[in-house]
Amino acid sequence: MGDLDRILGILGEARRRLFRLAVVLGPLFGFLVTFRLQPVAVAVGPLSVPLAYPVPNLFDNVTAQVFRALAAFMLPSNAVLLNVGVGDSVVVQMEIGLLLTLILGMPWIIHEVGAFLVPALRRNERELLRRVGIPATVLFTVGTLLGLLFITPLTFRLLFQYIAALGLAPVIGVQQFVTFALLYTLAFGVVFELPVFVYTLTRLGIVRAEVWRRHWRIAVIGSLVFGMIITPDNSGITMLLIALPMIALYLGGAWFAERWETTRLRRPRVVGG
Question: What is the tens place of the pLDDT at every residue in 168-182?
Fold first, then answer.
């Protein structure tokens, strides 16, 4: 009965944490798909400060505004977006709404997940999580912004140049565009977490640093496979744009792991008190 009570306690705690997440993320998602942000300029002395206030609008909502901004920023000016399927526009708004909910609610998600996991961790594991938490957040943010502001727009422009070279009309389906843009942008955020993952496994004593160095060929193949899976198109260009930074980040993480392990081995041991 002791094990059963323990399992039921864990399930009960997980249910409580999921409910707390739903209480915050549910209304946030509802706001994004039912309100739009109306821009307004507020005069503060000689300056005009741009602000926005929410206005109920089920169709032209925040997700629709974000979609138009993404299309204008990422696609060439002559590209044409088509609503191929009947419900594509609805699915697109739901996808963007879910992504924005995850991004805006990430601090609360991290808090709840951490509160659920921390009691089961040892002291050194808790200290390590606190130590790598800020670098992991910074790397994810940098990777996501890099994908959003530079790599994804560059990829679209590059692919549309191939289209123009064949004399084809620059047309793309709205569902294909959003899926590609969101997956490709988030992929860079995930890829930038790789050094933290490698370093953390070595700090925990799960994987020796020499293992990362010895199996770098497997890492290269894995990066190429990941790039092939995560990119929704079938061109090798997008795969390489994901795989090459991933390989570099893997090698960087392996270097930091080896450096930490070498420093720890050289540190003199204190005998007695």
Answer: 888 888 988 988 888
The model's pTM:
0.76
| Spatial separation of the C-alpha atoms in residues 74 and 150, rounded to whole Å | 9
Alpha-carbon distance values, 83 to 86, 157, 172, 176, 254 (Å): 7, 21, 9, 10, 45
Give me the amino acid identity at 128.
L
pLDDT in tens, 7-36: 777 788 888 889 999 999 999 999 999 999
For residue 221, give Cα distances in angstroms to 179, 185, 239: 25, 21, 12
Contact residues for 249 (Cβ-Cβ < 8 A; gap 6+): 191, 192, 194, 195
CA dihedral (80, 81, 85, 86) positive or negative: negative
What CA–CA distance (Å, rounded) separates 62 from 221?
A: 40
Q: What is the DSSP letter of 119?
A: G
Dihedral sign for Cα 115, 119, 124, 125, please: negative
How many residues are present in the chain? Answer: 273
Q: Which helix (H) or strand (E) holds 56?
A: strand 47-56
